[in-house]
Queue: 2 jobs
Job 1
Amino acid sequence: MLLRRSGARTETSFNLGKLTDTSKLAIGITAESTLLALAEAVIAGSQSAIQITRKRAIDELGEKTTVEAIAVIAGFNGITKIANGTGLPLDPETHNSTEKMRAETAIDDYSESSKFQTWG
Amino acid sequence: MQIPIAINDSHRVALEEIAGPGTWLDGETRNQVLLESRHASNCILCQNRSKALSPYGIEGSHDSVSDLPAGYIEVIHRISHDSGRLTQSWFNQVTEDLSAEAYIEILGIVACGVIIDTFATGTGQPLPAPQEHRKGAPTRISNPNVIDKGAWLPILDVTLEPSDTGLPSTPNIARAMGLVPSAIDLFFKVMRNHYQLANLAFDLSRSQTEMLAARVSSLNQCFY
């Protein structure tokens, strides 16, 4: 949700559909393919993929930034367990201000109502 | 890799806290929750459920590394391994035999352990061993300061004020485990070294940070 706000603050337009694989266009963020590949490898937990993507990230961004990226990935891998495990709704302010973005990214597919319709 | 001291310290402190008595679970049980969470990816039932279009049609028993009750193991494995497909029906079912407070304490430990383990795996370090558990009884003090806001269980009741980010001063995610305030403390003791809404002293840009956050949320099928 905050990527949209981050773009607004810097007057940058991001293609957010890529975040949920609903777009083949680039998002418009420096080193995005390297970082997204690292995130996917770390979340999948594949050691070989992690080694490859981590090396690529270190080569492109440096070790410090790569460690920071892994820290963010790890943090959100944890915090999503809390959101998913409590059926937590969006804050009303966020809900109201992200309607267009949620449609663009198809993120509503992950909502409680959508999950209920799919799995009961 | 050079690991920031603050991250290493927060992980060590969290493991020490997990090993001690909590609000609803004792230290030995809390350590077992951590170990069981680590084991979830090796569980055949969890693997079969992951491959299935719906996890709810696959019956069986979890492979376990602890003597925790079956209901605990179902909660731990599902949150660790397939949290994106949890539903309120599932939550209602598992909390028939497990108090909502104990559920939250387990959730907090699992989420904390996921951060620690994901970071270790991502940076190529061995998973840190749990600390020796400390004896002592859980306090079993309920927190009455909670409110129904549409989640599966009540969340922390706080006074909300606008913040610099345009989000509430205390977003729902920080209130989600309000039934067990010590679970909130434990989790954010770790989380705040991995991500903050503001003043995160990273070379990684804010846009790169939020892109990673959003992608990981998507990979976990997380709406929030």
Job 2
Amino acid sequence: MTTGWLAAEAVEVRRETPRVRTIVLDVPGWPGHRAGQHLDVRLTAEDGYQAQRSYSIASAPGERPDITVEELDDGEVSPYLAEELRPGDRIEVRGPIGGWFVWGPEDGGPLLLVAGGSGVVPLMAMARHRAASGSAVPTRLLLSSRTWEDAIYRDELADLTGRGDGFEVVHTLTREQPDGWSGYARRVDDELLREVAWPAHAGARAYVCGPTSFVESVSRGLVDLGYEPGKVKTERFGPTGG
Amino acid sequence: MTMTSQTADMRLDGNAIGGLLLGVFGVEMTGAMATCGSCGMRGALAEAEVYVQCPGTVARCPACGSVLLRVVESTERTWLSLEGIRTLELPIATER
């Protein structure tokens, strides 16, 4: 952990969806991170004006910190990161930050990951960490997206499922579904949770990340299903982004 | 952590002020356990209700809504109030 700002260079930029890009950062002196942590990004304009935002780290521990950024219509920082930034550009970062919303194979499972939109980013770090460390913890990731096109990491999630090592992904598409879609096509409600979540008696651990209203309804739903409140960890998105 | 403009989503949680608290305390604080001075609820600071749209930042108890802490940053100084926290427990060995 570091409390100071570090110089970072964007070394690769990958488009994930029409509004979302992943930025791979080279950060000399990066102390390493755990799955679920985030970092602060600081941009400085030529006139000295600074803007700072927090982004979840998408990559597994031991790798360079990737951030996955969604462009927000009224955002100040995200349009730059999601559309303008090019490989070779420099920004400043601080982190890693957070030690509560984190998971490692030693924490065990079964593991339930529930994401609304770009809330999948810190959960993807957990899924990648699980795969990279050869963990066999039974894991289900439930991802709620507006459309199939908006489903972040969908190809990689399919690959992770294809490994046959106990990882499953369940999509629900709330706004529009492709022709022939046979998956869920509604918001995550109590019935959907009951169908997808591990039974509470299995001692499952859940991580929920997304907009505040999504996180609160899902975490309430899981506790209603019998999940121990202490095993349901939540992270809400909001106005520190943008 | 991205932004939505919906009013219902203006309320965040303590994860969002991990960087701010790291700057103030010098250690990771989202996993620190705070006991509310009003209702006695004990929980991780990550679980506090956090409002960052105020002048400064306010964290409230998720059980009773009482103010736990307030932070105001200016270019010259950081002002911190812990008025609503009875006790704060920090893990001894926070790795990284």
